[in-house]
Amino acid sequence: MSRIPWYVPVLIVIAIFTSIIISVNMSKNSRYNKILNSSSNSFINNYKNIKKCCKDKVVISFTSTSNRINNITPMLNSLLNQTTRVDQFALNIPEECNVPDQYKNICNIFKTGKDYGSGTKYVPTLLREDECGTKIILVDDDYIYGEDLFETLIKKSDENPNKCLYIGDNFESAKIILLKPEFISKINHSKCDNKWLKDNLNVDVMKINYNNNIKYI
Question: What is the pLDDT along the chain (217 residues), one digit of tens a residue?
């Protein structure tokens, strides 16, 4: 009886591994295409069946501008298409920014009354949300986010309750930040950015490695 050449099992393992990689990439691309090209109705309906995995209140906070507000549906779809449900999507916008009616089925819309610069995505939310332990996740409006982003951040926050988490090369340019109201002792009422936020945190920051299917729109 002839023996099986040593390289045959190796080729089988490589083939299986390659098949898995292809399958995973196809799944990611399928999700991306659906999010990019679909209306929000199906995502809204499915979102109601997603379980909440955190005992604390979780708020997703972001802003947009007049020249972008009509193009953020893919980003909103990716917020709905997650492995865990959150308590609120908070869209902070200046008074002159008109929000499409369909977004009101997804977000709570807050007219800020003034422009806080890039800080508009978090200053009004911090002014409203003052309960200790509330997890506020800051995101930008020009990305499609991986489906386990919120679950990953919430889990890391539970493991590191006294750390401000971020995803990115550095905090100053981070697109995704998780903080709590008690992490910051004062709120800036003028224009501010991530540098101001970091300078006024009373906790350490912690980088989270997460590159799962975050794509620029």
Answer: 556 665 556 555 564 544 444 344 444 578 999 999 998 999 999 998 999 988 999 999 999 999 999 999 999 999 999 999 999 999 999 888 889 999 999 999 999 988 899 999 999 999 999 999 999 999 999 999 999 999 999 999 999 999 999 999 999 999 999 999 999 988 888 899 999 999 999 999 999 999 767 888 8
Q: Which domain holds residue 50?
A: 41-216
121: three-class secondary structure by DSSP = helix
Query: Using CA atoms, how far apart are residues 76 and 148, in angstroms rounded to an integer?
Result: 15
Helix or strand (DSSP H, E) at 136: strand 135-138
Separation between Cα atoms, residue 211 and residue 160, nearest integer Å: 20
Sheet holding 135-138, edge to edge: 108-111, 88-93, 58-63, 135-138, 176-179, 163-167, 204-207
Cα angle vertex 156, ends 28, 189, to 5°? 100
Same domain membership, residue 178 and residue 122: yes
Measured CA angle at 139 (ends 103, 118), to 5 deg: 95
Q: Are residues 163 and 69 in the same domain?
A: yes
Single pTM value for the model? 0.86
Please check whether residue 97 is in contact with residue 65, taking contact to mean a CB–CB distance below 8 angstroms: yes
202 and 169 assigned to the same domain:
yes
**Alpha-carbon distance 200 to 23, whole Å?**
45
CB atoms within 10 A of CB 96: 9
